[in-house]
Structure formats: C-alpha cells, structure tokens
Amino acid sequence: xxxxxxxxxxxxxxxxxxxxxxxxxxxxxxxxxxxxxxxxxxxxxxxxxxxxxxxxxxxxxxxxxxxxxxxxxxxxxxxxxxxxxxxxxxxxxxxxxxxxxxxxxxxxxxxxxxxxxxxxxxxxxxxxxxxxxxxxxxxxxxxxxxxxxxxxxxxxxxxxxxxxxxxxxxxxxxxxxxxxxxxxxxxxxxxxxxxxxxxxxxxxxx
Length: 206
Ligand code: TYD
Fold this sequence. Notes:
This protein has ten helices and five strands. The protein is of the alpha/beta class. The protein has a single domain, classed as Rossmann fold, CATH 3.40.50.300. Strands 2-3-1-4-5 form a five-stranded parallel β-sheet, sandwiched between helices. The N and C termini lie close together (12 Å).
C-alpha cells in the first residue's frame, strides 16, 4: 500500500502524517511501515533539498527537474524496494507537489504543457499511489498556522496568490485523475482532521 499526503504549506500535512503513521502501525495493523518525505528521503536528498529550497535556481524547469531527480532516486532507493518487501509506504509529498507547485501554479505555463507534464509520471513509470490525501485549507488559515510556527517568511516570500494557485492546482490535478484521491477539509482542529483521515481510510481500505 502506497499512501501520499499532500497540501499547501500550513495545511498541517506534516503533523497529520506523523499521527497517521502511528495509527497505521498501532491501530490498522501495518507493522511494516516506511515513513518518508520529499524532497529528501534518500542519501543525497538533503543536498538536493538545500539546492532546491535555497531558492537560487533561476529556471522553473531546473526546479521541476531537480524535484524529479530527487523523486526518481527516492523511488529507486526507497519507495520501490519497500513496496516490494510488502511495506506500507507513507510519503509526505510526491508527484502532485511538483505538478501543483512548479507547473499548475505557474500562469506562464499553458494548459497543454501542464497536462503533458501531468502524464510524465506514467511515462517514466513512477509507482502510482493507492491513495492521495489532499489536506485542503484556504491561504488565510495556512498563513495563520505558519505565523504561529514562526515559518511565515517563506510563505510571504512567495506570496499568498502563489499559494492560492497551488491550492487550485491541486484540484485540477485531482480532477484529471481522481482515482484514489481523498480530499479532506483540513481547516478544523488537529483532532477533527485526524479523525476524518482515519475514518476515510477505514471506509476505503479496511
Ligand atoms: P518542507 O519544509 O518539507 O515543507 P512542508 O512540511 O510544508 O512540506 O518544504 C517543502 C517545500 O517544497 C514546500 O514549500 C513545497 C515544496 N515542494 C515543491 O515545490 N515541489 C515538490 O515537488 C516538492 C516535493 C516540494
């Protein structure tokens, strides 16, 4: 089973991924659980993470291919072998992040190009998640959460409009291939969101 967690910065995805991992192990019987994240999650992942998140790449395509490089190695060294061993893989961000942040959020990229890039994942044979959670919040909620965590700088640097476009980008991606997507209203409390995540999982898979 391959599960992916997605959402804009400040959606609470990282907190919920941790809680969900505990639950999958302790309450849903997934003893072999591989919890990982992108960018990163393989031996040179932190280097690529610094390169990309340092914000110094000048072309959006360099950013796109850097995230793809990171993902291809992460898949080859981590995700595919773990799935082959029968582990349940829980990944914080995956291909939908690259499509939403680098492609669908960019008003200069025409729709046909975006849809072409959308197909890239199948073309290169990346493993397809059984389930993609989309933790959906508006940018106001995301901003307030990042403010309380003192992480507002990168949000401000990219601007609230950028995150609005990422948010609607996620919807477009989900609508292009809705199989396995679970969209959750993530504006509630930590407990409310977590209950919804586990209830929807039990309904679909247990
Ligand atoms: P991170 O510190 O992991 O934030 P979060 O906990 O919110 O996921 O930083 C990841 C950042 O990288 C986040 O702003 C989203 C961005 N990102 C992309 O732009 N494209 C991608 O393909 C991935 C995986 C992440």
